[in-house]
Each structure stands twice: as structure tokens, then as C-alpha cells.
Amino acid sequence: MLRQLIDTFGRVHRDLRISVTDRCNFRCTYCMPAEGLQWLDRGDLLTFEEITRTARLLVERYGVESIRLTGGEPTIRADLAGLVQMLSVLPVDLSMTTNGATLRRMAPDLAAAGLTRINVSLDSLRADRFAEITLRDDLDRVLDGIDAALEAGLEPVKINVVVMRGVNDDELVDFARFGRDRGVEVRFIEFMPLDADRAWSDDAVVSLEEIVARIGATFPLEPVPRTAAPASRFRYTDGGGRIGVVASVTQKFCDSCDRIRLTADGRFRNCLFAVDEFDLQSLLRSGASDDEVGELLEGAVRAKWAGHGIGRVEFIRPARSMSQIGG
Ligand code: SAM
Ligand code: SF4
After folding, report:
1. Closest ligand 2 atom to 162 CA
2. pTM higher than 0.85
3. Could you tell me the end-to-end alpha-carbon distance of the chain, in angstroms, rounded to an integer?
4. What are phi and psi of 212, to 5 degrees?
5. Buried b / exposed e across 79-97, counting CB within 10 Å, b at 16+?
6. Is 159 strand, coil or helix?
């Protein structure tokens, strides 16, 4: 019988993010320290079988409807297409968030394995700035990767841009034009305090309101009605497509959030900003039954708090950075 993952506020959770590795070939300044992080041991990563067992339980028993693979950089997990194939038998929307650098090589295999759509992170359209942000001189490869994803039919292709004041906020209109020209939706993400270097400050955040006003001055926009998805969406009034804005900082969407997360080392998280994690890895490796695993999952969602409270004095930063949690 279908049960539900429901928190104390009555929110039903149906959107799963799975981090398949904590490793990354980039070092984005807003996500990872330049010297890298202490990587997990290989034996600590959930195996494909463990990931698939958990996903199957979440889909078949709890009605999870969408799964997004993330990381670290998901494309550097060996045989990612093999995992996609294992998950693709489940009746879900199966997507991935990637830095895009290896998509020219990997997109056809991922599409053939059953991946349906893709988000590519891209924070600057200027080669020198791209290299400063990611510490990799890979802008052309990422742009080519976006084309490869479109050619492989991984649509809709969406572009994730973390907007940081004084870093790339002068490119808002350039990104809007890029999205309109290429037929891709650009999602602008407010900079969140999950950077490993802890350099985040309020001043660096460019709000949804400002993003929409600055783009709207060149390409007029109107709002699209909200769904459970975290992005507020807007369409160009001339029919030129849409943008999304993920306003995690200035307009918290906790009330409608239905997202749960599994880290690469098998910790189950009920919120991106959670300070507590639930050790699913040990349970899976102790020979637990599906009922026992289900009990952990249900209890973890029941324990979900009301909202993350960024900006309030009681906000506690999670101990792990975005790349370790799986953004
Ligand atoms: N490596 C993949 C990528 O970059 O798309 C997947 C993992 S990455 C952690 C997932 C998303 O989190 C990316 O779109 C990235 O831009 C975003 N992200 C990372 N750190 C962030 C921060 N401090 N604030 C807002 N978004 C962040
Ligand atoms: Fe790697 Fe993605 Fe974090 Fe950049 S945002 S360092 S590509 S995990």
C-alpha cells in the first residue's frame, strides 16, 4: 500500500536528490575550497545496488515522483550510465545536475540509459571570469556540452546560474539573451551560505526581486503560477521563453518544499540546510528489512523543521558544504 513521507506540517515529500559522489573536477569558489576537500573513501560511497534499493522503496512505497542525480560532480562517478539504467526502470522523472564539462562525451550514453533531462551549471559567459570562478579553463567545453545535451534530447536543458554581487551580476541580461537564443531556461539561484570557505555574506546575495527587475528592464517578464518546485518562474511577454529564480535566501519556499536528499555516503537529509543527518548506510549494510529502512525514512521526514531561517540569529550553518550535501 502507498504510504507517504509526511512532516509535522503536513507536507508530503516526493522529490529525491541523490548525490552519487562528493568528488569534483571543478573548484567553484562558492562551493568548494581551492585546495579541495577530504574525499570520502570509495568503500563509504553507497553502491549502485544500495542507491537503487533505496530509490525503489521511496518510489514504490512512498510515491516519490522525481529523482535528480547530483554530487560533487555526478559525471565523474564510474559507470554513471549503469546507475541511470538501473534507476530508469522506476516510474519517475529522472534528471541530473552537472557542471557540463564532460557532456560531449557522455550525453548520448546517459540519454540512451534513460536519463530524461539535465541542468547544467554555468556562472559566467566570459572565459576569464569562468576560469576565476571554477578554477578551470573550460567555458568552451561546457558550452559545447550544453549543445551535446540538446542534441542527445536531454530536454528541457536548464542552466543554473549562482548570482553573486560583484562577481557575475553584471551578466544577468547576457544570460537572459543566451537562454532566449539557445532555447534553454536559465535558472538564477540566490547565493546560499553553503560555500566551503564560509565567505558568504548577505551583501553578496542578489535577490529575486532585483534579478527580475534588471532582466525585465531589457526583456519584459510576467510571473507564471507557482508549483512545488523551488524556482519561481517568469515568462517573457514577447513569447521568448522563461526564466526561473531560486530565491532560497530572500523568499523561502519551505512551506511548499517536498525535497529529500541522499548523500554519497548514504546519509538521509530532510533539508538542504539540515544540521542532522540519518545514517541510512549503516542500516542498509546491517541487513535491515525494507520495513526497517522505511521506518528511518518516515522518522527523518517527520523530524523536518519548519524552515531554515537564513538571516535570523538562530540560523545554524550545516557542517557540510554544498558539494558534500549534493546541491
Ligand atoms: N557539480 C554539479 C554542478 O555543479 O551542477 C552538481 C553539484 S552542485 C553542488 C549543484 C548546484 O549547487 C549547482 O547548480 C551549483 O551552482 C549550486 N551551488 C553550489 N554552491 C552553492 C551556493 N553556495 N549557493 C547557491 N548554489 C550553490
Ligand atoms: Fe563542483 Fe558543482 Fe561544486 Fe562547482 S558547484 S565545485 S562543479 S560540485
Report:
1. 5
2. yes
3. 31
4. -65, -40
5. ebbebbbbbbebebebbbb
6. strand
Residues 6+ apart with CB under 8 A from 1: none
For the chain, give the mean pLDDT: 92
Distance 323 CA to ligand 1 centre (A): 7
The closest-lying atom of ligand 2 relative to the alpha carbon of residue 322 is 3
71 lines ligand 2 (CB under 6 A): yes
Q: Starting at the earlier edge strand, list the strands of the sheet with 157-163.
A: 221-224, 231-236, 242-246, 185-190, 157-163, 117-121, 93-98, 66-70, 15-19, 259-262, 267-269, 278-279
Query: Does the beta carbon of 100 sit less than 6 angstroms from any atom of ligand 2?
Result: no
- Report whether residue 29 contacts ligand 2, using a CB cutoff of 6 Å: no
Residue whose CA is closest, atom 8 of ligand 2? 72
Percent composition of the chain: helix, strand, coil (DSSP 3-state, to 5)? 35, 20, 45
In order of start, what are the domains of the chain with their CATH numbers? 15-325 (3.20.20.70)
* Spacing, Cα 5 to ligand 2 middle (Å): 29
pLDDT of residue 90: 98
Q: Which three cell numbers stand for residue 114?
A: 534513460
Point out the ligand nearest to the CA of residue 24: 2
